[in-house]
Design goal:
about 450 residues, mainly alpha, about 75% helix
Length: about 450
């Protein structure tokens, strides 16, 4: 079987398995196994198994994933986020759109302390969804801002997605964290600007709300500052140690998990039952991610060894496009894949194809990977398989229809596309901070 046909067969089987509703990890691994027999090369499986052990199960950097998941769960159990949101809600309640702005700002802080999408959306949804609806906020704005803001955790470091991207690219975790910081914060601020403009021009969608409690602004500021200390210490411990070169990504994640546990203990929230459930949830989430990584490694291993990878790269090279047009085509492919695949699968399937071509074009690898990370924000929001939509649907009241949730995220998808264009037009948004941190002399 020629390599071009192998590529068609593998992606055909992949799409078939996904549309039949099977889990991504099993579809990827099953496609790899079936292809070796269809191509008459079952011996390839031995090489692939060795690659799985070498690239995945023996990868020290990937240990950071369960540690960051555990840190996120500890922070959620500490109750810090609830108190911060309550303080910010009272502080901004009499401003039009104040509750929605509070969601954005707390989500930015959550993103910098967790990096777990499901945790951020669930926490913000439980805290903010019903109050916003009760105070007269439109369903579309309410669901849109919670879903989109909750997804900032894959772009603002520490991010599990960026750790995985670094593991399968020539870049270090520190470089990716530094490169994504400015675009991530700018994207969050663009959400805040959008919410403010909507509240000004469409006040019926985001009304001003009289605070329930009469507390002085000074007291609220002191309360907010006090509640912000634990997350800021956590951010400093993780990003400070990593970006300063004191710790590796794995060591920084261990520091973060330890600090988050200390926060839980100091706030009197530690119980053995919650500790057990935190460990159990960490094991489940980490296993889900690593199963997908194993399946994708098997898929790309078979795809490479049987010649499908080389054939696909040659087809792309033969298009003879200008570099900017080729990058645009790659980002469009990632955007479309985001509607059907999990970000883990997209990264592991596209990197082996795209990164060698990007290196040949002498384009900044850091800029390309961060640009792709920005595009992947949409993968959580685009139907039919946007995970943020499912997370929010699970906690939303029955009167909130799924169609309203989808309509709500559309403006934020447009903002993500605008941020992609901005990052593409101004690469220094990505490269400036890493150059400052990592340039010697």
């Amino acid at each position: 079987m020629n390599p071009e046909l192998i590529a068609v067969v593998m992606f055909g089987l992949l799409l078939l398995g996904l549309f039949m509703g099977h889990p991504l990890a099993f579809v990827l691994g099953g496609t790899a196994v079936l292809t070796t027999f269809i191509a008459g090369k079952p011996m390839v499986l031995g090489i692939v198994i060795n690659r799985i052990f070498g690239d995945v199960l023996d990868n020290f950097t990937l240990i950071a994933i369960p540690l960051f998941v555990l840190m996120a769960r500890f922070l959620s159990d500490s109750g810090v986020t609830d108190r911060m949101f309550e303080s910010l809600r009272l502080l901004m309640s009499n401003i039009r759109g104040g509750l929605a702005l509070a969601v954005v700002f707390i989500s930015i802080l959550l993103a910098a302390t967790t990096g777990i999408i499901g945790a951020s959306i669930t926490v913000m949804g439980v805290m903010a969804l019903r109050p916003m609806l009760q105070y007269g906020y439109a369903q579309t704005l309410t669901t849109g801002v919670i879903a989109a803001s909750g997804c900032l955790g894959i772009l603002i470091p520490p991010s599990i997605m960026l750790i995985l991207m670094a593991s399968y690219s020539p870049l270090s975790v520190g470089e990716l964290f530094a490169g994504s910081m400015v675009p991530g914060v700018l994207l969050g601020l663009s959400y805040a600007v959008y919410v403010y403009l909507v509240s000004v021009f469409r006040p019926d969608l985001a009304p001003a709300v009289e605070p329930d409690e009469k507390i002085s602004r000074g007291a609220l500021m002191r309360m907010l500052a006090f509640e912000a200390v634990p997350p800021l210490v956590l951010i400093l411990g993780i990003l400070g140690s990593l970006l300063a070169g004191i710790a590796t990504a794995t060591e920084a994640s261990a520091i973060g998990a330890f600090l988050a546990l200390l926060i839980v203990i100091m706030r009197g929230k530690f119980h053995w039952s919650t500790f057990y459930s935190a460990m159990l949830e960490t094991a489940r989430t980490s296993a889900m991610i690593l199963f997908i990584v194993v399946g994708a490694t098997a898929f790309t291993g078979v795809f490479n060894i049987t010649g499908g990878l080389r054939a696909t790269q040659e087809i792309i090279r033969s298009l003879d496009m200008a570099p900017w047009l080729l990058i645009t085509m790659m980002m469009v492919i990632v955007f479309i894949l985001g509607a059907f695949l999990d970000w883990t699968g997209i990264v592991l399937l596209s990197f082996p194809i795209f990164l060698p071509i990007v290196q040949e074009m002498e384009i900044s690898m850091l800029w390309f990977v961060v640009l792709m990370a920005v595009v992947l924000q949409t993968s959580f929001l685009t139907p039919p398989f946007g995970y943020a939509l499912f997370y929010l649907r699970a906690i939303a009241p029955k009167e909130v229809r799924t169609g309203q949730i989808i309509r709500g995220v559309l403006p934020f998808i447009a903002l993500i596309v605008l941020m992609c264009l901005l990052v593409a037009a101004i690469p220094s948004l990505v490269t400036w901070l890493p150059a400052r941190l990592y340039t010697q002399g």
